[in-house]
Amino acid sequence: MDQLTYEQARDELVALVSRIESGQVPLEESMLLWERGEELAAHCQAKLDSAQETLDRATARGDSAGEDATVTEGSDVDAEDQQGGPAD
């Protein structure tokens, strides 16, 4: 399972769901397919979580480089000013 890419796992999961939904698979086989689907879904989620962590780290590095321009919570600038709207 660890060697599957996100796309491979997703494609297999889609195929399994189609087979189960077709109603042409015996109950016991459907249960085995369901278990495999659970594993594939968990694998896909882990891949997505890993990608999100990578993006978060990259964003944090980028944000720390531009901290001087960042408005901090509790400053005197209101939300409209932060969005480029007219000041009060």
* Mean pLDDT over all positions: 82
What class do helices, strands and sheet pairing give? mainly alpha
Helix share, percent: 55-70%
Largest sheet geometry: none
Beta-strand content estimate: under 5%
SSE string, helix = H, strand = E?
HHH
Low-confidence stretches: 74-83
DSSP strand count: 0
- Helices, by number, come to 3
Shape: rod-shaped
* Cα gyration radius (Å): 23 Å
Cα distance spanning the termini? 57 Å
- Looking at the chains present, what oligomeric state does this protein adopt? single chain
Key attributes of the depicted protein:
88 residues, mainly alpha, 68% helix
Question: What can you tell me about this protein's structure?
Answer:
There is one protein chain. α1 (6-22) runs antiparallel to α2 (27-65). The protein is rod-shaped and about 60 Å long. The protein has helices at residues 6-22, 27-65, 79-82. It has 88 residues and is an all-alpha fold. It contains 3 helices and no strands.
Can you give me a brief rundown of this structure?
The chain has 88 residues and is an all-alpha fold. 68% of the residues lie in helices and 0% in strands.
